[in-house]
């Protein structure tokens, strides 16, 4: 029974190939058709002889998965609390990428629908200056803050205090670097 069904399937496939692309190519595909015949025969034999086992496996999977909605995946979300608001905003702001190879600046391009816009407001806050500060005001604020937080000034301080001033100096340097790019 299985062999006759498989043979009929292969003969129909042979005739279809012969009619559409020519019988010479159909004869050339005989080895491939023979392999297909063997696969169809084996899978048919397997499906008939192990039909009840296949049904049992399908039924067990149905029972295991019936309470789970279809098409769901595990999704891990970034947890937001009040302490990491800046990190949360930066994460989503940086996820956009860039536009035409240039990073866009939110202060100069507020209506940019194309991705990465860096919030430079935090750099103005770090330096303690207004958003419309000139180049000289930025440089003056930078120099004053470097003098105030320079590590050489705190050689006799505790390790915690030294580390705090070093971190503050790194923030100040980053802010000055980012804001001075606007004027170059």
TrEMBL record:
<keyword id="KW-0472">Membrane</keyword>
<dbReference type="GO" id="GO:0034975">
    <property type="term" value="P:protein folding in endoplasmic reticulum"/>
</dbReference>
<feature type="transmembrane region" description="Helical">
    <location>
        <begin position="7"/>
        <end position="27"/>
    </location>
</feature>
<keyword id="KW-0732">Signal</keyword>
<dbReference type="Pfam" id="PF00226">
    <property type="entry name" value="DnaJ"/>
</dbReference>
<dbReference type="GO" id="GO:0051087">
    <property type="term" value="F:protein-folding chaperone binding"/>
</dbReference>
<dbReference type="InterPro" id="IPR051727">
    <property type="entry name" value="DnaJ_C3_Co-chaperones"/>
</dbReference>
<keyword id="KW-0812">Transmembrane</keyword>
<feature type="transmembrane region" description="Helical">
    <location>
        <begin position="33"/>
        <end position="63"/>
    </location>
</feature>
<feature type="coiled-coil region">
    <location>
        <begin position="155"/>
        <end position="182"/>
    </location>
</feature>
<dbReference type="InterPro" id="IPR001623">
    <property type="entry name" value="DnaJ_domain"/>
</dbReference>
<dbReference type="GO" id="GO:0051787">
    <property type="term" value="F:misfolded protein binding"/>
</dbReference>
<dbReference type="InterPro" id="IPR036869">
    <property type="entry name" value="J_dom_sf"/>
</dbReference>
<feature type="domain" description="J">
    <location>
        <begin position="122"/>
        <end position="184"/>
    </location>
</feature>
<keyword id="KW-0175">Coiled coil</keyword>
<keyword id="KW-0256">Endoplasmic reticulum</keyword>
<protein>
    <submittedName>
        <fullName>Chaperone protein DnaJ</fullName>
    </submittedName>
</protein>
<keyword id="KW-1133">Transmembrane helix</keyword>
């Amino acid at each position: 029974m299985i062999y006759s069904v498989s043979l009929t399937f292969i003969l129909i496939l042979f005739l279809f190939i012969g009619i559409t692309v020519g019988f010479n190519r159909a004869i050339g595909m005989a080895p491939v058709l023979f392999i297909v015949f063997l696969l169809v025969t084996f899978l048919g034999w397997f499906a008939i002889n192990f039909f009840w086992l296949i049904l049992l496996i399908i039924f067990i999977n149905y029972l295991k998965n019936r309470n789970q909605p279809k098409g769901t995946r595990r999704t891990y979300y970034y947890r937001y609390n009040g302490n990491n608001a800046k990190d949360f905003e930066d994460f989503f702001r940086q996820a956009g990428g860039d536009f035409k190879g240039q990073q866009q600046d939110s202060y100069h391009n507020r209506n940019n629908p194309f991705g990465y816009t860096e919030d430079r407001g935090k750099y103005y806050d770090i330096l303690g200056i207004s958003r419309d500060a000139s180049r000289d005001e930025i440089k003056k604020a930078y120099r004053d803050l470097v003098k105030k937080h320079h590590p050489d000034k705190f050689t006799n301080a505790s390790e915690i205090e030294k580390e705090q001033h070093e971190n503050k100096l790194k923030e100040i340097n980053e802010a000055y670097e980012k804001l001075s790019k606007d004027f170059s």
